[in-house]
Specification:
single chain, about 400 residues, alpha+beta, Immunoglobulin-like, 3 domains, eight-stranded mixed sheet, five-stranded antiparallel sheet, 4 helices, 25 strands, about 25% strand
Length: about 400
């Protein structure tokens, strides 16, 4: 039989054998291909069973085969099948799932945007031109999504779950994503808790990372999945950092106790070479004594991240009159006290006390010395009064 370039393929129909419910069943990786074989004069070839060989290419002519051959020659084995029945030139073949080299048919449509089919009947030359495989076979590209919801899309090598993938991103998931490592491992949940972008990791207990467009939060709690916040740390866009709170009002806010191994105060720059306008501190004692220490209780300590019960401290409005540098007003309108330079005030106040003491001692000493001198004069006078006078001698005769 002379199958030449003029041989026509008429009424070719390409379609994928579909699965009604991809979630419950796997998709057969097969393509149904139908057509009609004509001789050079346009007459259908005789009815009979024919050897047919199929290859797939990325281009209409030339090039290297992407897949194939798959041979329909009546033999058994991978990539082999029954001879093709031709009736008045019409035929039907089912391609896949593998060629004689065990290559998967589905991968051809997953990795290539254009695919052309080439048929070779018997010993004749391949039929030309090759026919392009159109939309239906490319549904094999969704094989890797078998078991997923139908609205999940695999396109151009990019996976979109719940939405078309954005250009430039190999994976886009619309909605929450849950990843379970299985075995003794934990799970990973990407979701939007309380209108935040969040990642939850856990096995027996959990750790959360969340962002609400203003604050990055690190949380931990009991249970694998989000059910409450037990402990937290936060970094706000303002630069405020909170430990034990996710709404820090200060550059560093710690709710609860904080330790500093080794003790001592926090360091600050104090080198004389970095300072100017250095002036003696005067009136330190008077300033400290102008402050008033009080005992008090907060009205709602939990709301302002303070400790409950009786506390000891100062009143901001009173401090502001004496040490305005210690008082600031927060974004909530309430005043806060930050004690600055207390060490210097205490040192100079002690110096003032010592000077006062020395002045008082000097004054007392002087007063005592004057009293002693007066006593000495008085004693001398008394001695002079009570001392016996010398006896006078009697003289003369008769």
């Amino acid at each position: 039989m002379n199958m030449t370039k003029e041989t026509l393929l008429l009424g070719a129909l390409l379609m994928i054998t579909q699965c009604p419910t991809a979630v419950a069943q796997s998709v057969p990786p097969l393509v149904n291909y139908q057509g009609q074989l004509l001789d050079p004069s346009g007459v259908p070839i005789p009815t009979g069973d024919y050897d047919v060989e199929v290859r797939l290419f990325p281009v209409e002519s030339g090039g290297v085969a992407l897949w194939g051959p798959q041979r329909f020659n009546g033999q058994n084995g991978v990539g082999l099948g029954s001879k093709v029945a031709v009736v008045q030139g019409r035929f039907n073949v089912v391609l896949g799932p593998k060629d004689i080299n065990s290559a998967d048919l589905a991968q051809v449509f997953a990795k290539n945007a254009s695919v052309f089919i080439e048929l070779k009947v018997g010993a004749a030359n391949p039929i030309a031109p090759r026919q392009q495989m159109l939309a239906a076979p490319f549904a094999l590209h969704a094989l890797t999504a078998a078991g997923l919801k139908g609205d999940q899309i695999l396109a151009d090598g990019r996976l979109g779950v719940g939405a078309l993938p954005t250009a430039g991103y190999p994976l886009e998931v619309s909605g929450a994503g849950f990843f379970n490592t299985g075995g003794s491992g934990g799970s990973l949940l990407i979701h939007t808790p309380s209108a935040e972008t969040g990642i939850t990791m856990g096995r027996v207990n959990r750790a959360d990372i969340r962002f609400d467009d203003s604050t990055l939060k690190f949380l931990s709690g009991g249970g694998r999945l989000p059910s409450g916040i037990d402990h937290g740390m936060a970094i706000a866009l303002s630069g405020n950092v909170g430990i034990g709170t996710i709404t820090p009002n200060f550059k560093l806010e710690v709710v609860g106790s904080a330790g500093k191994p080794g003790g001592g105060s926090w360091s600050n720059t104090s080198d004389a070479r970095l300072k100017k306008n250095i002036q003696p501190l005067s009136g330190a004692l008077d300033k400290l004594l102008a402050l008033r220490g009080v005992n008090f209780e907060y009205i709602d300590p939990a709301a302002i991240h303070e400790l409950a019960g009786e506390r000891t401290g100062l009143i901001a409005q009173e401090v502001e009159k004496v040490m305005p540098d210690w008082v600031e007003t927060g974004a909530d309108g309430y005043k806060r006290v930050t004690v600055r330079g207390l060490e210097a005030l205490v040192v100079e106040a002690l110096r003032d006390l010592r000077q006062e003491q020395e002045d008082q001692v000097a004054k007392l000493r002087k007063e005592k010395e004057l009293e002693i001198e007066e006593l000495r004069r008085s004693v001398a006078e008394l001695k002079a009064l009570i001392s016996p006078r010398p006896a006078q001698a009697n003289g003369g005769g008769r």
